[in-house]
Amino acid sequence: MTETAPDISRGDEYIVFYTGGPYDGRSDTRISTDGTWETEITVIAAFDGKETQLDYVSPVAKHVGEQVQVTYTWDPKDSDPIEAVEERYDS
Question: What average pLDDT score do residues 43-49 get?
Answer without folding.
Answer: 83
